[in-house]
């Protein structure tokens, strides 16, 4: 009977330990706090439902493989609607005092967001897992269910693409200013 | 343009990195509720399982005593009298002790590496082969104690060097021998690091992991252990030619480890297969070893 009583304790323990990391992965992936919170909740409900079947291995990479699936499903659903619209950032800008510095900051955030949202989802996942969540190459390969060398290659390509986009974008802004 | 770290800091600054407190506590509550619901469901399942089990028992008992089932059962038992059930085997005194000093040794097929020095695995390792040997012995009516102590973890936790392996694996062995005077043979299961062609043999079209018997020349009872290893080897090659690579006596002058073989006569270190074998091939050979051990026990 023990295992039945434990499940409530266990899921809360797991949730407290991992919700922040999962949320951070999802906010960077989706760019929307609302979506990230909804998805985080969904992820932990899936974790709870599958907990009795989980018996060996690294629980963190297991949770993140669920999070990655949730993120990609979400991306597919929203592909043609407006998650990459600029509503999220406009809203913030309009509610705060617009000093020049602030405007510049907002502008930069917008650039970063646009650059990330233009990465294809598999690249986006690898960049966030490695760069933001700081998973090792091995853990990332477990989460993405691919080889370690694919993680390395994808990570470098994605970073290169991201930097190129950011460079290009900043130059454009400068160009416009002139 | 910027370093990777700057880039990630930029990304981190772009988004609100903490969810709202409200969300955190709401989700926690939702999970608690759902977990309780799950509990209730499993309890119902468990209860129905228990009640149907009870009903079956009552039925069997009444059949046994009131409807003459007793005779049927006794007849059945007599015809299958020689097959010992696993439960009765576990009640017998253990005759064999199996352990793995290098318990994380694994195989290329189970790990993501091609380097024998890195082929270790937390769960898919040589311990499974020891477990298979123990199970196989039990199926033959021989009770065995299989020690699954994670030796490597103990070494790491205490910052012991690799050379202390056998002093760590000695402790559970020593304690078990003290408490079980019935134990007649001790096997320390390893796998080799050699190439596949050296550690594999095809018999009637099926691949098996080859075995080598290692005996330390430095323990006081090395003569007895060598004799024991040779008996195993001879018996094995009689039945399965080329499956054994032979008996190796290690003698590194005064530095030689005893592999704990001084604790009991009839102790031997087994290298079953190598890093390039599969678990299936390992299991096949473990099954054969169980058969050979049974033969030797019956002889003596």
TrEMBL record, chain A:
Keyword set, alphabetical order:
DNA-binding, Sigma factor, Transcription, Transcription regulation
Kindly indicate whether the keyword DNA-binding belongs to this entry.
yes
- Specify the superkingdom: Bacteria
Q: Any idea where the RNA polymerase sigma factor 70 region 4 type domain is?
A: 111-162
Classification via InterPro entries: RNA_pol_sigma-70-like, RNA_pol_sigma-70_dom, RNA_pol_sigma70_ECF_CS, RNA_pol_sigma70_r2, RNA_pol_sigma70_r4_t2, RNA_pol_sigma_r2, RNA_pol_sigma_r3/r4-like, WH-like_DNA-bd_sf
Give the matching Pfam families: Sigma70_r2, Sigma70_r4_2
What residue stretches are annotated with the RNA polymerase sigma-70 region domain? 14-79
Q: According to its UniProt record, which protein family does this protein belong to?
A: Belongs to the sigma-70 factor family. ECF subfamily.
Q: Which protein is depicted?
A: RNA polymerase sigma factor
TrEMBL record, chain B:
Segments passing through the bilayer = 46-66
InterPro entries from the UniProt entry: Spore_II_P
Q: Which keywords accompany this UniProt record?
A: Membrane, Transmembrane, Transmembrane helix
Pfam families in alphabetical order: SpoIIP (PF07454)
Q: Its domain of life?
A: Bacteria
Xref: NCBIfam families? spore_II_P (TIGR02867)
- Name this protein carries in UniProt: Stage II sporulation protein P
Question: Which source organism does the UniProt entry give?
Answer: Cytobacillus eiseniae
């Amino acid at each position: 009977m023990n295992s039945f009583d434990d499940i409530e304790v266990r899921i809360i323990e797991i949730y407290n330990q991992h919700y922040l990391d999962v949320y951070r992965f999802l906010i960077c992936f989706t760019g929307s706090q609302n979506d990230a919170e909804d998805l985080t909740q969904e992820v932990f409900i899936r974790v709870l439902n599958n907990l009795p079947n989980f018996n060996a291995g690294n629980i963190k990479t297991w949770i993140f493989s669920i999070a990655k699936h949730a993120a990609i499903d979400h991306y597919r659903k929203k592909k043609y609607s407006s998650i990459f619209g600029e509503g999220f950032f406009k809203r913030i800008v309009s509610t705060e005092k617009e000093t020049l510095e602030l405007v510049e900051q907002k502008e930069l955030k917008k650039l970063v967001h646009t650059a990330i949202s233009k990465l294809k989802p598999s690249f986006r996942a690898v960049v966030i897992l490695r760069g933001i969540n700081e998973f090792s190459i091995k853990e990332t390969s477990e989460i993405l269910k691919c080889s370690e060398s694919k993680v390395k290659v994808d990570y470098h390509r994605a970073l290169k693409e991201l930097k190129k986009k950011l460079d290009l974008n900043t130059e454009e802004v400068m160009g416009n200013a002139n | 343009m910027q370093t990777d770290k700057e880039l990630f800091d930029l990304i981190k600054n772009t988004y609100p990195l903490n969810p709202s407190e409200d969300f955190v506590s709401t989700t926690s509550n939702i999970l608690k509720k759902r977990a309780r619901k799950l509990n209730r469901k499993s309890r119902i399942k468990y209860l129905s399982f228990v009640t149907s089990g009870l009903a079956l028992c009552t039925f069997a008992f009444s059949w046994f005593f009131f409807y003459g089932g007793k005779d049927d059962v006794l007849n059945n038992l007599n015809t299958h009298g020689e097959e010992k059930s696993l439960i009765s085997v576990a009640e017998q005194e253990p005759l064999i002790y199996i352990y793995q000093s290098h318990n994380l040794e694994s195989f290329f097929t189970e790990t993501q590496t091609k380097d024998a020095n890195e082929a270790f695995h937390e769960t898919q390792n040589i311990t499974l082969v020891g477990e298979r040997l123990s199970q196989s012995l039990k199926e033959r009516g021989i009770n065995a104690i299989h020690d699954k102590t994670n030796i490597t973890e103990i070494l790491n936790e205490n910052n012991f060097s690799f050379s202390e392996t056998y002093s760590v694996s000695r402790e559970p062995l020593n304690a078990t021998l003290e408490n079980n005077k019935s134990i007649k043979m001790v096997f320390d299961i390893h796998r080799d690091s050699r190439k596949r062609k050296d550690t594999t043999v095809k018999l009637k079209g099926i691949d098996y992991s080859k075995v080598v018997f290692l005996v330390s020349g430095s323990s006081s009872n090395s003569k007895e252990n060598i004799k024991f290893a040779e008996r195993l080897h001879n018996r094995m090659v009689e039945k399965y030619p080329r499956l054994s690579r032979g008996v190796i006596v290690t003698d590194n002058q005064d530095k030689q480890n005893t592999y704990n073989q001084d604790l009991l006569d009839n102790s031997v270190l087994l290298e079953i297969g190598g890093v390039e074998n599969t678990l299936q091939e390992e299991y096949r050979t473990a099954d054969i070893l169980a058969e050979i051990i049974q033969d030797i026990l019956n002889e003596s």
